[in-house]
Write a structure and sequence with these properties.
The protein has 165 residues and is α/β, with parallel strands linked by helices. The protein has a single domain (3-153), classed as Collagenase (Catalytic Domain), CATH 3.40.390.30. The chain has six helices and four strands; from the N terminus they run E-H-E-H-E-H-E-H-H-H. The protein has a four-stranded mixed beta sheet with strand order 1-2-4-3, with helices on both faces. Helix 5 (113-128) packs across helix 6 (137-153). The longest helix is centred in the C-terminal third of the chain and has 17 residues, at 137-153. The radius of gyration is 15 Å and the shape is globular. The chain starts with a strand and ends in a 12-residue tail after the last helix.
């Protein structure tokens, strides 16, 4: 199973065990994205500030603003799918979540920060596994369906459901 290296920085509140949340997100995805079950895989998850994500977003994506989550895949999907289970550890990629943006979005959606962060971790892990919602409407629908199923396993409501507002 995918092994996570988790770093939690201020301003993420200590009221939630963010490491447990990230591990639960991986568990929820295993039967939906079985490629993440390869025991050789590692990934890092950084819970950090908007300021840090802003720097990363500007440096690596050329976007001069913070965003909720950044995904930095290290393996192409074909390479991931063909990766033997025996061998040295292999870095799947890195995720970085921006606390203030995540908190603002959670408040705007009327959901708990932990639930929104779980969604973004699931979303980011799917990107690391080679899923990309920006390639086509069909790819977006497929990725959203995986997210909805994984979040349901965590007891989190469909983040894409129309709430009538």
């Amino acid at each position: 199973m995918l092994s996570l290296d988790i770093d939690i920085e201020a301003p993420w509140p200590a009221t939630t065990d963010w490491a447990d949340l990230a591990e639960a997100a991986v568990e929820a995805l295993l039967d939906l994205a079985p490629e993440l079950g390869n025991p050789r895989l590692t990934a890092s998850v950084l819970f950090t500030s908007d300021a840090e994500v802003h720097v990363l977003n500007r440096e690596w994506r050329g976007k001069d603003k913070p965003t909720n989550v950044l995904s930095f895949p290290m393996l192409a999907r074909d390479d991931l799918l063909g990766l033997p289970h025996a061998g040295a550890p292999e870095l799947l990629g890195d995720l970085a979540l921006a606390c203030e943006t995540c908190a603002r979005e959670a408040a705007d959606k009327g959901v708990a920060l932990a639930d929104h962060a779980a969604h973004l971790i699931v979303h980011g892990l799917l990107h690391l596994a080679g899923h990309d919602h920006e390639t086509s409407p069909a790819a977006a629908a497929a990725m959203e369906a995986l997210e909805i199923k994984a979040l349901a396993k965590l007891g989190i409501a469909d983040p894409y459901a129309d709430d009538g507002t």
